[in-house]
């Protein structure tokens, strides 16, 4: 991501207070997206569609849509967390940016390990 690279290189700088505020906003966005993602994951495993073939097909269709949505939201969460890191780095908050970077890497590894599911 060019924004993060510019922040790492020091060519992009923000006042630390503004950077912290932007980082908080991206963290809140990631938290909100995670809540939505968790609900989608729950929907993916709903039952009660009945035992008929049409009910099973409907259940499978909803499950597939929910899992596809979860994958897209995973990407959005990762992007929000990368943006948080970039803003912290641009604000000169290197330690906080390094912590944010490690959190992104751990989360991405969990998603990969769980086959796209971060739970």
Task: Describe the fold and architecture.
It is elongated and about 60 Å long. The chain starts with a helix and ends in a 6-residue tail after the last helix. The protein is mostly helical and 119 residues long. Helix 1 packs parallel to helix 3 (53-90) and helix 2 runs antiparallel to helix 3. The chain is 80% helix and 0% strand. The model has no long low-confidence stretch (mean pLDDT 86).
What's the short version?
The chain is 80% helix and 0% strand. By secondary structure, it is mainly α.
Topology overview:
Blueprint lengths: L1 H8 L6 H29 L8 H38 L3 H20 L6
Helix pairs in contact: 1-3, 2-3, 3-4
Helix content class: over 70%
Give the count of helical stretches: 4
Strand % is under 5%
Give the ordered list of helices and strands. HHHH
Task: Give the biggest sheet.
Answer: none
- What is the end-to-end distance? 26 Å
The computed structural class is mainly alpha
Low-confidence stretches: none
Count of distinct strands? 0
Report the mean per-residue pLDDT as an integer: 86
Radius of gyration: 18 Å
Based on Cα principal axes, name the global outline. Answer: elongated
